[in-house]
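Researcher: Quick test of sequence recovery. Tokens follow.
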């Protein structure tokens, strides 16, 4: 099975302007496809912007809303899967909004939709309802792709749940701000090693409202290395999620085999 070439779009786009953000996504998809990528990942809340205040309610839409339809068309036009963050309005309860990430396949069909389960800070807790499905997955190019969003990956239980469910590549659109850059630099590669998977951590960058996003997007590998790493500026970086390396690493690393679940009940 060939590696899944994965493109990480590190960008804050144009907060409050979904139409312009979709143009940024389209340009990135064209570049990623030209480099042979099968998956393009955009950051948390990329469709609308993150620090947009009341714009969260104003710009929220269902998963298959206008922005979602354009994103699906972009994926189909360039023949690669696309994952993007957005504020999702619950169709049954329009007053409920989730911080979500949606994965569409290279033919434009929806493969998965995930709602952030661990909300960070007063802004998110005031704006969003937390999701309650911890593991959301899809098959892409023979790999099992799982989704978390930003703060979710900082809980080892979340990542281990994905490992036990068979996730090979965990995609994490994020809005990681100063002074927490150690998460991108240190924590994410450790999560990839301890749970034996690839983790694509894709951040916003630069000042936005009261926040200063740190960039440093990366594709962390199960062997403890970082396959690609962005700097602090807007950037498109590409790395391979290699099934052969993943299989070899899982054979060598005994963490998942040596677990003793019977001892861990008190943790929950």
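Model:
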């Amino acid at each position: 099975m060939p590696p899944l070439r994965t493109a990480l779009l590190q960008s804050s786009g144009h907060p409050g302007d979904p139409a312009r953000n979709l143009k940024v996504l389209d340009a990135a998809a064209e570049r990623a496809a030209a480099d042979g990528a099968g998956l393009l990942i955009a950051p948390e809340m990329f469709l609308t912007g993150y620090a947009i205040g009341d714009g969260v309610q104003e710009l929220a839409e269902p998963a298959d809303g206008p922005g979602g339809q354009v994103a699906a068309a972009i994926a189909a036009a360039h023949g690669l899967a696309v994952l993007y963050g957005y504020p999702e309005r619950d169709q049954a309860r329009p007053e409920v909004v989730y911080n979500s990430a949606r994965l569409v396949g290279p033919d434009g069909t929806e493969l998965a939709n995930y709602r952030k389960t661990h909300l960070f800070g007063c802004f998110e807790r005031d704006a969003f309802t937390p999701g309650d499905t911890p593991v959301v997955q899809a098959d892409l190019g023979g790999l099992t792709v799982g989704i978390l969003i930003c703060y979710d990956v900082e809980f080892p239980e979340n990542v281990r749940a994905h490992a036990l469910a068979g996730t090979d590549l965990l995609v994490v659109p994020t809005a990681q701000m100063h002074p927490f850059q150690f998460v991108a630099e240190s924590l994410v590669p450790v999560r990839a090693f301890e749970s034996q998977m690839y983790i694509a951590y894709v951040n916003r960058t630069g000042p936005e409202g009261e926040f200063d996003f740190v960039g440093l997007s990366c594709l962390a590998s199960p062997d403890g290395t970082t396959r690609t790493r962005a700097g602090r500026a807007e950037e498109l970086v590409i790395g391979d999620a290699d099934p052969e390396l993943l299989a070899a690493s899982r054979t060598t690393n005994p963490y998942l085999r040596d677990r003793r679940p019977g001892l861990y009940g008190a943790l929950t």
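The first helix runs from residue 18 to 34.
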